[in-house]
Specification:
The complex is a heterodimer. By secondary structure, chain A is an alpha+beta fold. Chain A is 29% helix and 21% strand. Chain B has a six-stranded antiparallel beta barrel with strand order 1-8-4-3-9-10. In chain B, strands 15-18-13-14-17-16 form a six-stranded antiparallel β-sheet. The chains are: A alpha+beta, B alpha+beta.
Chain lengths: 157, 538
Amino acid sequence: MAISSITTVYTDRKIDLHIMQGVNAPSKSSITPSFGLISNYCTGVQKLIQRYMIMLLTEIGSQENYPDFGSDFLVNLLSSSSVYNRVDLQNLFAFANAKVSKAIIDYQIENELPLDEQLNTASLVDIINIAPGHVSLKIQIIPQTQDAVEFVVPLPN
Amino acid sequence: METIQDTNTRLTTFISESYPNVDLAPGSVLNELIIKLASTIQQPLKNDIDALAQVNTITSALNSTEDTFSEVISGIASNYGVVRNTGAKSTGKLKITLNGSDTIFVNEGTVFNQPVVKLNYLTSQTYRVTTNPQTDRDIKLIQKSAGSSLYYFVLPVQAEEVGAEYQLTDKTSLALTVQDSISGFVDAKAYGNFTTGLPVETDKELITRFKNGLSHKTLLSKTSILSKLQELYPNLTDLSVVGAADPEMTRSKQNILGISTLGAVDVYLRTSIGLETTTITKEATKTDEGKWSLSLNYQDVPGFYRVISILPSEQELTGSLLHTITFDYNNSGFTTTNLVNNKYEARFSKYQTADIVIDFEETDYELPASVIGGTTSFDILVSYQPNIGDIQNLFLDPNERILCADYLVKGMTPCFVSVGVTLERNDTYTAFPVDKLKQDIYKYINNLKIGEDLQASKIVDICHNYNVKKVRLPIKLSGEIFTNHSTTVAISSKDTLSIPTNYSLGISKKTTGFISNYFNSGVDPDSNLTDTINIEVL
């Protein structure tokens, strides 16, 4: 996951487990969410991106007792036998992104967070053809610090 | 009871206090992997532990905020010869309309569903339905009218589970849960009110009962009367006593000075959750062309409220014949009787009598005309509270009666309640359980004691047991009191529905109680029923 800038002070920041491991900032690298590597934690914009990813890719209704958590992005992609084109993917992403962004912004309104952990906007920058039948989404997140961060999310077949 | 969100908050608070640097925001890995999964496992365990803890002692069980059903409490009660009531299923009959006259079989376990409150009713045995019944297990299939392709039959059913919420009123519609399980099925409606169902007795109710059982069981005070009667009549839910000093007492003041001569007590009973109905078959005498006359007394249905319909027996007609009723009273001819001075004091008691004049011209229905003075049978459907006559006889029993007192037993004056609630839900993705909310409101209203106020705030609390964002105020509460003059008095409120006072009509907090049905039946017996508990979900 590419980190476009480095915040300088992480003292007293709240931390989360880092499951998007394998990136040494500042650089670009392909990663797979996983456990089993050396324990690692994250904070700052990396934590924000991780939260956004989890909420975007969790299928809504898949968690017992939390029927409203997640988005319908993968639900729509995986449940339908339809063939989607770019415009369809953009539409699906737009609805899912709106829900996830609202949930994150609602939380940051209620809780005091550092500026680089506060979401400003998230948007779909590009749809990248990796191979026939395989695409990835290039997403840009702009936190309240206005330093845009881009990352790529591969989609299942 | 702790909700999943409460458990979530409890764990989040604990971890945050222990590890202030940990981020547990929604979407964080720690929240997803630890908080949510731990909450899902812990929440039911905590609720189970809390429920078990509440039945450790009788005091805890009495103070429990939830209904508990502990075997330990059952064992303790059995030491005093008291057995937990396992509840009763509501039973009734359905009038089922078919297209065609073919003989059909209705299998045991055929399920009918009331789609609004989502309650199920089923048959307890297999029946053969035919136009030519041969055995006791056969049910007669009757043509609706001459030349019609529609036929109907009356089918006994019972509720799927025990509980008070299963009582349905006359003409409530039901649907088959398995389509085509009855060939030619058109529709099904309740044929008369269903009987009262009873829930399983909770630990709190059982403890109260065996504590009362240790007390003196006489017919002297309200408490002792209640403990005595509930042993004999488990369907008795409440009673109210009006004595010499009460303004409602008129029987003992019928003297030149208008002061109470003491000794007279009126006992108002609630022996069913909602009113029940029953059919009486009685001979009427033709008094004039198109006019028939019959009388009802304590041997028919003691203390009945009103006549719902009258039809000639075995003529397979529907609807009701026009009729006029004149109420009166008769307390003579009994070995032991009560002081009753007028028909209003006798109303809803066993001393109530009724003279009914029925408009019935046989030739209008292609039947042979009878001579003046001839008789024929009529089926009369009435609403009533059960056991009024039996309980009055108990009070007059030489072995039980209080020798210096005159206890007159009556059914309580009913106030039929309608509720209108509008609420906004939190989750727009899942269906809102309107049926469950209706059942809860139904049980709340029908469990109110005689004279107890109906609070809008309690209904709001019930709504918030479900996933609602808010309940829009005001809530519409209205009631219709059926008086001892056979008139109705309307009341309404947006906050607290309270029984008013009108002693001449027999209305006060000591005589009147709230009753709720699921549906209102209109004046036209064939019209669609409207919701009594109307819930609008936005």
